């Protein structure tokens, strides 16, 4: 592992220990991107984020602008001036979940584009959050007595309740309902894990299990207390034939899950450990 890779690991582990509110979402997303592109310098990408923020700050003018005005400024800068678009044509391209590639290409997934909106909004002191919406990442911008949901994949356009219902039905089927849970705000760490999960799921679907193990490992750096990630790592270690490492991962999963009352995942990991011991004896 090169010095830069070791540096990114240290930074990601530090973010994993930090409170959610202290995590710089775009900077951590760039470090995750650099894990797959160790040859790049992050300085130009950080400079670009500063440029986006400065453009939005200049266009916004007043800090207490109404929500619809602030949303229009963000979409006008990101989708308008800088031409960031959702990649509908090659949606499953792994580059769409890598923020550095997204900045290079000006297109990406809803969550990657959403990170740009969240980064700029936070720098401008706006109250924006990602939502726990299934299948398609959306954002909520809030102000005194009002809120607006926007779609970063489609130019930051506002979404009505009817739009959200149609969107959730396109993901979950015609009987799906718009639940309060789908509209709950999620934390920075969860958004970054959602970003990486796009890469993980594509690697597993493609049978790239060594790649999947790399991705799960850095997800664990970022969220060391998540029992489910240890379970996934254990499965991937079994697939790689690393039975000792798999046993360690499942045992850690049991400890973490038991400590926070996640009995289902604890039971799954205990069963996986029993099966492993049967195979090893």
Number of strands: 7
Strand order of the largest sheet: 6-5-4-3-7
Mean pLDDT across the residues is 94
Structural classification: alpha+beta
Cα distance spanning the termini: 34 Å
Q: Determine the number of helices (DSSP H or I, runs of at least 4 residues).
A: 12
Strand and helix order: HHHHEHEHEEEEHEHHHHH
Task: Using brief descriptors, characterize the structure shown.
single chain, 281 residues, alpha+beta, 5-stranded antiparallel sheet, two-stranded parallel sheet, 7 strands, globular
Question: What do these coordinates show?
Answer:
This protein is α+β, with helices and mostly antiparallel strands and 281 residues long. The protein is built from twelve helices and seven strands. The protein has a five-stranded antiparallel beta sheet with strand order 6-5-4-3-7. Strands 1-2 form a two-stranded parallel ribbon. The relative contact order is 0.10.
């Amino acid at each position: 592992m090169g010095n830069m890779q070791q540096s990114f690991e240290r930074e990601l582990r530090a973010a994993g220990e930090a409170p959610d509110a202290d995590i710089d979402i775009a900077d951590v997303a760039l470090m995750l991107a650099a894990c797959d592109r160790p040859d790049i310098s992050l300085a130009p990408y950080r400079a670009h984020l500063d440029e986006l923020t400065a453009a939005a700050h200049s266009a916004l003018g007043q800090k207490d602008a109404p929500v619809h005005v602030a949303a229009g400024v963000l979409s006008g800068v990101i989708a308008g001036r800088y031409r960031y678009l959702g990649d509908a044509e090659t949606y499953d391209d792994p580059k769409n979940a890598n923020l550095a590639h997204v900045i290079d290409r000006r297109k990406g997934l809803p969550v990657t584009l959403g990170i740009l909106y969240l980064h700029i909004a936070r720098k401008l002191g706006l109250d924006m959050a990602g939502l726990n919406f299934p299948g398609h990442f959306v954002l909520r911008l809030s102000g005194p007595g009002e809120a607006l949901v926007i779609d970063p994949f489609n130019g930051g356009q506002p979404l009505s309740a009817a739009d959200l219902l149609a969107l959730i039905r396109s993901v979950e089927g015609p009987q799906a309902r718009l639940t309060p849970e789908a509209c709950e705000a999620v934390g920075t760490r969860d958004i970054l894990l959602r970003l990486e999960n796009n890469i993980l799921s594509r690697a597993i679907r493609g049978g790239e299990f060594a790649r999947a193990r790399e991705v799960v490992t850095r997800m664990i750096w970022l969220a060391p207390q998540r029992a489910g990630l240890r379970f996934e790592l254990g499965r991937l270690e079994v697939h790689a034939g690393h039975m000792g490492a798999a046993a360690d991962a499942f045992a850690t999963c049991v400890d973490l899950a038991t400590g926070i009352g996640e009995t289902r995942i604890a039971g799954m990991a205990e069963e996986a450990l029993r099966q492993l011991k049967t195979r090893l004896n």
